[in-house]
Amino acid sequence: MAKLLDIHKLSAGYRDAVVIDDLSFGIGQGEAVSLLGRNGVGKSTLLATIMGLTTVSKGCLEFDGKNIANTANYQRNRMGIGYVPQEREIFASLTVEQNMRVAARPGEWNIAAAYKLFPRLEERRNNYGNQLSGGEQQMLSMARALVGNPKLLLLDEPLEGLSPVMMDILLDAVKQLKQSGLTLILVEQHAHLALEVTERVVIMDRGRIVHDGRSDLLLKDDATMHQLLGLAHAHQVENTAENSAENAAGNISASVRKPDLKLAS
Ligand SMILES: Nc1ncnc2c1ncn2[C@@H]1O[C@H](COP(=O)(O)OP(=O)(O)OP(=O)(O)O)[C@@H](O)[C@H]1O
User: Fold this and answer.
1) Which numbered atom of ligand 1 lies nearest the CA of 48?
2) pLDDT score of 262
3) What is the overall mean pLDDT for the chain?
4) What domains lie within the chain, and their CATH numbers?
5) Which of 27, 51, 165, 248 could form a disulfide with 5 if both were Cys (CB 3.0 to 4.6 A apart)?
6) 37 lines ligand 1 (CB under 6 A)
7) What's the 82 CA to ligand 1 centre distance in angstroms?
């Protein structure tokens, strides 16, 4: 089956600085992929490159069967790539609803559907962008990308700086999106949480992909977690009684996770 996104021997970065180095990577329709790696290895740059926000020095980038290496950023968005940047980029002088209206395009994801996913946004529908908490801004950034009805959703550290309760809400939303069949790439420092909501994981190191496999297998692989992500005792933490009970109940609760689950720098 043709891949929705197909990257071949791609090098990219910022002006003369090459950050993504000869990288190849593909993602099929409906796949949910965690993109992990230590700080500064190029994860955000890879998402920005898919979105058309960096300088590509060589290689191919195909989306939905078309070469988009020279396609402008706004056109990529129209073609179906949705982006939730790390900075959220909410329009401060627009209300919650206006933030979504400016991005909405016809399709299954309309504003009502976004409110269903994030009821909190409906309660805040008339609040301006600068009157929202960090978690609400993150919900809005994700909702705004969704009402554009993307075929591929890029999420750059959606849990960063959020309270455990907000992390639960955002993670549950990602899980629902995956279950709905949306193709997505999730960059996250909270590796264990990301691995629980995706079926595939790709790990980067110094601009290259150094691991590509199943999320559930990596969760049990302490040696690789330690070697590539700097995470120690992943398996042991995963198997605490608390977490086992949560998993058995089918819930993902960030609030019971240990703070040491973030990647080492
Ligand atoms: N706008 C930019 N201009 C120039 N260099 C940049 C820019 N953004 C990132 N870089 C550099 O690119 C490299 C990769 O950064 P990037 O943010 O992609 O890594 P990352 O894996 O997402 O890290 P983190 O997990 O800390 O967000 C770093 O050396 C960084 O300093």
Assistant:
1) 18
2) 53
3) 87
4) 5-79+151-157+172-237 (3.40.50.300)
5) 27
6) yes
7) 20
**41 CB near ligand 1 (under 6 Å):** yes
Please tell me the predicted confidence (pLDDT) of residue 234: 45
Residue 14 CB–ligand 1 contact under 6 Å: yes
pLDDT of residue 109 exceeding 50 = yes
Does ligand 1 have an atom closer than 6 angstroms to the CB of 47? no
Ligand 1, from 35, 36, 43, 210: best to mutate by most atoms within 8 Å of Cβ?
43
User: Is the pTM for the entire model greater than 0.80?
Assistant: yes
Crossing angle of the two packed helices 164-179 and 134-146, in degrees rounded to 10: 10
Instruction: Report the distance separating Cα 257 and Cα 239, nearest Å.
Output: 11
Task: Give the confidence band of 232 by pLDDT, cuts at 50, 70, 90.
Answer: low
What pLDDT score was predicted for residue 236?
43
Q: What is the pLDDT of residue 16?
A: 86
